[in-house]
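thread: overnight batch results

M.L. [08:02]
morning all. the overnight job finished for the chain we discussed friday. pasting input first so we're all looking at the same thing
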Amino acid sequence: MIALICFVLAVLASPFKSNIRLEAENAVLRHQLIVLRRKLKGRARLTNNDRWFLVQLYRWFPSILPVLMIIRPETLVRWHRAGFRRYWRWKSCRRGGRPQIETELRALIRQMSTENLLWGAPRIHGELLKLGFSVAQSSVAKYMVKHRGPPSQGWRTFLRNHAPDIAAMDLFVVPTIGFKLLYGFVIIRLDRRDLVWINVTANPTAEWVARQITEAFPWDEAPHYLIRDRDRIYGSVVTRRLRSMGIRDKPTAPASPWQNGYAERLIGSIRRECLDHVIVFSERHLRHLLLCYMKYYNGTRTHLSLEKDAPVSRAVDRAGHILCRPILGGLHHRYGRI
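M.L. [08:03]
and the structure it wrote out:
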C-alpha cells in the first residue's frame, strides 16, 4: 500500500519535473537493474565504473538520491567525498622540480652505501659520476642506507684483510691396520686455503713440531700469526721457535675447536675424502697418501670460498678434448683438455 502511494505521488509530481532530471533518474534505475542482473548470488558487487557513474550523476543531479535502492545514500556521498579528496590531492601535487631518479639508480646507491660502510655521500657521488650518472650529491645522501653508530667494517672484511698473514696448524690421529696410532700434522694458510705442509710421525714431540714449522716456512715467507690449539705437545720449544721466526703465537681458548675452524675443516676433508676410504698399512703408506691428497687439494680441488677455484689457481680450458686423470687410485679425478 505504501509503495502504491509513493508511485501515485511520483506520477502526480512528474509534470513538474524537468526532462533532464527524469532522464537522470531513469538512467540510475536502469543502471541498478544492470547491476542486479549481473549479481550471481549474495549481495550485489559494484565495480569502479559503477561507482564513477553514480557519483557523476550525483554531482550533476543530487535529486537522484531517493531512487537509489541498491546502496545507501550516505555510501554514495562517502564515495563522492573520497573522489573529491583524491582529485585535489592529484591537483596539488608538484609538477616541476627535479626529475625523479630511476629505480635502478636508487638501488645502486643503496648497494654502494651497504657494501662500503666507510663511504659517505661525496664518495658515492664521485663514483656515480665516473659511471656516467648525472645526479646531485643531495639526492645521493637522500637515498643512502642510514647506519646506526659510526661507520665500521664487517668481520668478513676484517678477516679477509688479515687472512694473508694468518696460518693455522693442528694434529690428528690415524689408526693403522695393526691398530697402531699415527699422527698427522698439517699447516694451512687462511687466504687461499692452501695446504702448505703435511707430515706424519709415530712419536710427536715439541722438537719435531718445531722442525716442521721451520721446514714449512722459509724465513721470508713466514706468516705473522699462527693459530693452534692448547695441546700439551706445543711446549716452550715451539713457542721459542715461533718467536725467533717473527711469528706471533695465537693459541685458542680451552675447549674451543671452532676458533681453529680452518684447520679443523681441512682435517675433516682429509678424513671424508681420503682416509675414510683406505686402510693405512704403515707410516710410509700414510705419508704417501697424504702427500698425494695435498697435491690434489692444492692444485685440483675446487673450493666454495674461492669462487669454485683451487688454492693454486687453475686456468680455464675451453678448447681440446677432455682428458680424465685418476688421483689416489681413482678415488678422485682431474679433468683437463689436451
